[in-house]
Every structure is written in structure tokens, then in C-alpha cells.
Amino acid sequence: MDMRKIDYLLIGQGTAGSLLAWQLMQKGCRVLVVDDGRPSSSRVAAGICNPVTGRKLTRTWLADELFPYLHDFYRNLERELDTSFFHPVPLYRPYQSIEEQNFFIAQTANPLLQDYVRLSASDRAYASLIHNELGGLETLQAAWVDLPVMLDALRGRFREAGALAEDSFSWDDVIREEDSVTWKDIRARKIISCEGAYARFGPYFGWLPWAVVKGEILSVDWPGQSLPGIVNQSIWIQPHKDGTFRVGSTYEWDDLDWEPTEKGRTYLEGKLTKLTKLPFEIQCHVAGIRPATQGRRPFAGLHPEYTPIGIFNGLGSKGTSLAPFLSRQLADFLTEGKELHPDANIERFHSLYFSSLKS
Ligand SMILES: Cc1cc2nc3c(=O)[nH]c(=O)nc-3n(C[C@H](O)[C@H](O)[C@H](O)COP(=O)(O)OP(=O)(O)OC[C@H]3O[C@@H](n4cnc5c(N)ncnc54)[C@H](O)[C@@H]3O)c2cc1C
Hints:
The protein is of the alpha+beta class. It has eight helices and 21 strands. It has helices spanning about 15-25, 65-80, 100-105, 125, 145-160, 260-275, 320-335, 350-359; strands at about 5-10, 30-35, 50, 50-55, 60, 85-90, 90-95, 115-120, 135-140, 145, 165, 175, 180-185, 185-195, 215-220, 230-235, 235-240, 245-250, 280-290, 300, 310-315.
């Protein structure tokens, strides 16, 4: 059989696999992405990028690096793909109480948050739809990415470049060699698992500390209504297309399937009814599994024992913010041996792997 020789075989065309493939191709590498179109977290996600989270207004991990990078990255990618999917918008947080109002207002003077939060000057623009009697805070540098549009455009580009195999992948078909792997008629220098939540069932990365979490989202209609940004108050409301909004999301650690549930719908409906002023109609209800990790940091790097095998995963609930910067880091690591961020590099868990061999 004639072998096709490539540099990197990537399994999965979600956000992780797509952006890593793109970065590697920009460096001139020969890449093949394998994806069979099974349910994916990226195709369910709202794609929100939020640099400041929680009731304490905590700056997200690596925010100062991730956010400037992602804005440039997605804008460039839109230009390269001649498609629109990146939507920088403020994220509006209506105050829930006088105490929260005082705390948030005080935080606008916090030097660590100055690039990220400001008092909203648009309270009135939200007031037709949202209860915001106490006003609200705006998070800056926020955005949402229309992931299905971006992923479809990338898929088309990979297909044109002969860099896509629309096929099911099984690790049973992989033959490991000293410095390469073979899958079917492909020989690759490295194979990188970008399988999202499915990776925890595979033979090479099950030992990593996964903590995957199911999430559900509603699409609702408020004909004629609009919002200048994403609203966030325990749930979020994301203006999507004219008069359509996405509402999410839930967190469920136990019943880990890809099906929407009555419990998820009831929870989101209840929160939405409290936060908004107008009746709404639910158009659609979807669920997905976030590839989250204990410790909430991603998984990137090479297998402790079989170094032609690597992983880019563990993006949890922040894949849209993390993937641009980390895919670049991983591409630099793979092609130039540059250092990966130590909190992302799976080297930090190598001892777990070796102890798993003993048990
Ligand atoms: C309800 C919900 C809301 C979310 N909201 C946000 C948000 O607002 N902002 C944000 O940043 N993140 C959000 N996320 C998280 C986000 O979806 C993930 O961080 C990110 O999409 C993970 O991307 P991934 O590529 O690692 O995995 P996935 O997107 O799951 O991609 C894995 C890919 O691998 C393919 N695959 C797997 N196994 C095989 C195989 N054996 N053969 C062939 N193909 C295979 C699958 O088809 C899939 O395409 C949300 C997630 C959920 C569920």
C-alpha cells in the first residue's frame, strides 16, 4: 500500500482541532484532520469570550494574553476565510442588589480590572427587555464567535486543501512506531487527539484528570427586540440573529449524554422569566458535553511514554477564549520546540500516568 506522508494527523474538527490545524498549516506543515461529524461541544456552544467572571469579578486565567490575541486572531481568520463570525460586544451585568452595585462600582477603580470593566452607559437600551432597575456594569473585550459558521468555513478550507478525512477514527487502527504513527494509509510524524469529551474513553489519555460537564442552551424568540450586548446574571442571554436570542447554560456532572432534558429546560426558563420583562417563545433546545478538567486548566502536550502521540483538549467552558492562544503555543511547541505554558502542559500530570500503570 502506498503511504501518504504527513506531519500531523489531528483527530477532531471541533474548536481545538480546527484552530490547531489552521496554525500548523500557516507554518507550512502537512496536516490531515479526521472528523466523522458526531455530536460536538463546539457546535452547541454559545462561543462567548468573557475575560471577567463570577460574582467577585475574577479575571479569567491568562486574560491579559488571551484576549488581545483572540481579537486579532478571529479578525484575521474572518479575513482569510472571507466569512463573518466574530462579534465583539460588551457583556452587561445588571446589578442584583445594592451590595453588588457597590462592589461592582468599586471594582471599576481596581487597576487590575481597568481594561475589562466600566459602568454601563447603555442601561436604557437593555431596559425594554431586562430587569435592570439598579443599572449595570459592562465587561469590555468580550465577544461571541458563531462557531458553526467558523467551523464550516474551516472545514471547507481543509477539504479544498486535501487536509480533511470525513471518517470515523479508532485508536485500534493506529500503529505506533518509534518516531511516527500509521493510520490506514497515512504515516504521520505525530497524531494529536482533539476529540473533545470523547478523548477520556480512548486508550492514551484516560488517566488525565477529566471532569467533563454537560450543558444545555435554549434559543428563544422576542420578535422586534434587540440588545446591545450579551446579558449575564447567573444565566446569559446572547443576541444571536434578528429577534432570536440564545440562553444558557446549565452544568450537570452526572447524567453525561448529549440529549436536552426537561430539567435543563425548566431551570433556564425559570431564570429567564425572572430576568426578563416580556414573554418569550422557545424555538430550540440543545445539549453538549464540555471537555472540562479538574483544576480547570487545559490539556496540551505529548504522551509521557509514546511521544508521537499528543493531545489538545480540556478547554472546558472557555474553548473560544483559550483555543486561539493555546493552539499557537502548541503549534510552536510541536514545530520549534518552544515551551508550552506549564499550567497547560500535560507534563504536570505525568506522575498520574506512571502511577496508573502500577494499579
Ligand atoms: C452548552 C454549552 C455552552 C458552551 N458555551 C461556551 C461559551 O459560551 N464559550 C466558550 O468558550 N465555550 C463554551 N462551551 C465549551 C466549548 O464548547 C468547548 O470548550 C469547546 O467547544 C471544546 O472544543 P473541542 O474541539 O475540544 O471539542 P468538540 O467541539 O467536542 O470537538 C471534538 C470533535 O472531535 C470529533 N471526534 C471525536 N471523536 C472522534 C472519532 N473517534 N472519530 C472522528 N471524529 C471524532 C467530533 O466529531 C468533534 O467534531 C460550551 C459548551 C456547552 C456544552
